[in-house]
Design brief:
Blueprint: E1 16-17, H1 22-28, H2 40-45, H3 47-60, E2 64-66, H4 74-77, H5 79-107, E3 116-121, H6 135-149, E4 155-161, H7 164-172, E5 182-186, H8 193-196, H9 211-220, E6 225-229, H10 236-248, E7 257-262, H11 290-302, E8 305-310, H12 316-326
Parallel strand pairs: 1-8, 2-3, 3-4, 4-5, 5-6, 6-7, 7-8
């Protein structure tokens, strides 16, 4: 595994590039894909395609790929199946990511100078459903994922967390003896992106908690990086600006790095109260071309985002364009 420390994230010129949305890309390349299993189905039936997608993102220029463990939760694979094979599926997800990095580095004539595997710790009680979160249940679910992923990953990424409680529980799932970086990513309430993008209104998590409180919690949890993901790209610059303001108020020179990986959904207020993400294949904004996404990304970089990638609907073509535009 690559040796990664909390201080090894580039802080100048080009950002560290993440991959894009695994689930949508699996669906695009013809992997078995249905509800309720979502992207976990490919782990069970076509793990070769999971590794292929990882390699595609690496070839596009991603420095960090994320394990295909997002859907390894009872909501998607069922409680009994999670109990019986959850750890094995997580282990497989980690192994495929590690094999993809090894294969890419061995086959590419000009491999990325830095490649790492992030272990995805998803919202284990339901995406976009902070109302369903139960810390006691989540502790056991996280423990299973961590045990399965741990042999393979270079860092931890608790992603699409909708509340401070979710992020706190995910952070506590990692042993104090584990020195690998821990990145945490919040998903934001983006039901009025045009208004929120102006910066005139306070941003909130999907739980309704003010973003300022979440940033303060991230500092207190000693995260190595704070990211914002699976939300409208138009509001991310405001989120970064808010984070910079809170971080600057701390005199302990916190090493917290910032990052963004937005989604490509058609943002028309389609997520109503009580509705989770990944309950259907949400339409993708066809106007969010690689060029347009890159314009957003350069705004984020100007707001000191050191880590940039894509979430649902952001594919290898977007990551490739980012890599070229930042080179």
């Amino acid at each position: 595994m690559d040796q990664l420390s909390s201080h090894s994230i580039p802080t100048h010129t080009s950002p560290l590039l993440l991959d894009g949305g695994m689930g949508r890309e699996l669906h695009r390349v013809g992997a078995p894909f249905r509800q309720p299993e979502w992207s976990a189905l490919a782990l069970m039936e076509r793990p070769d395609l999971v590794q292929k997608v990882h390699e595609t993102f690496l070839a596009a220029g991603a420095n960090v790929i994320t394990t295909n463990s997002y859907a390894i939760v009872p909501f998607h694979i069922g409680a009994d199946r999670f109990t019986n094979i959850g750890k094995d599926l997580a282990h497989l997800a980690g192994t495929l990511g590690r094999q993809a990095i090894d294969a890419y580095q061995a086959s590419s004539q000009t491999p990325n100078s830095f490649s790492a595997l992030a272990g995805s710790l998803p919202p284990v009680c339901g995406s976009y459903r902070p109302d369903l979160f139960d810390a006691h249940i989540a502790e056991d679910l996280f423990a299973t994922l961590v045990e399965g992923l741990s042999p393979s990953v270079d860092l931890w990424l608790a992603e699409t967390q909708s509340s401070i409680a979710e992020m706190t529980t995910a952070r506590q799932a990692i042993s104090a003896d584990d020195t690998r970086p821990f990145w945490g990513s919040f998903t934001l309430d983006d039901t009025q992106p045009e208004i929120l993008a102006t910066g005139q209104n306070t941003l909130h998590l999907r739980s309704g908690e003010p973003l300022e409180d979440a940033i303060q919690a991230a500092i207190e949890l000693n995260l190595d990086a704070l990211l914002f993901n699976c939300s409208d790209p138009r509001i991310m610059a405001t989120a970064l600006h808010t984070a910079q303001k809170i971080i600057s108020q701390h005199t302990n020179n916190t090493p917290l790095k910032l990052g963004v990986y937005a989604n490509g959904f058609v943002h028309n207020n389609h997520h109503v109260e009580g509705e989770g993400a990944n309950e259907a294949i949400t339409p993708i904004d066809t106007e969010l071309t690689p060029e347009r996404y890159a314009r957003f990304a350069h705004q984020w970089h100007e707001e000191r985002a050191h880590i940039i990638g894509g979430c649902c609907g952001i594919g290898p073509e977007h990551i490739s364009y980012l890599a070229k535009s930042f080179s």
